[in-house]
Amino acid sequence: EEWQESARLRVMRLLNDNHEISTRAVADAVGISNGSACYVLKALVAKGFVKLGSFSNNPRKGKYIYLLTP
C-alpha cells in the first residue's frame, strides 16, 4: 500500500504539470507498469481527486485528459 500512496502522489504531481499526459508516459515517469498506471489513475478518478475528460474534437476518441480537482 505504501508504494500505491507514493505512486498516487507522483501521478498527481505529473498531472498538475501536464493534464494531457498519456498513461504510458505516466507509467514511464513514475517507474511503474502501464497496468499499474491505469489502476492508479482509475483509483484517483474514483476517489474524486482527478476528473477524466476527453477530446471531443479529436479524431482519436481514445485520448483522454486528466484534470486535478480543486
Features:
70 residues, two-stranded antiparallel sheet, alpha+beta
Can I get a quick summary?
The radius of gyration is 12 Å and the shape is globular. By secondary structure, it is an alpha+beta fold.
Which stretches are poorly predicted, pLDDT < 50 over at least 5 residues? none
What percent strand?
A: 5-15%
Mean of residue pLDDT values: 83
What's the helix-strand series? Answer: HHHEE
Find the count of extended strands (DSSP E, 2+ residues).
2
- Cα distance spanning the termini: 25 Å
**Structural class based on helices, strands and sheet pairing:** alpha+beta
Physical arrangement of strands within the biggest beta sheet:
1-2
Share in helix: 40-55%
Figure out the total of helices.
3
Q: What is the general shape? A: globular
User: Main sheet?
Assistant: 2 strands, antiparallel
CA-atom Rg in angstroms? 12 Å
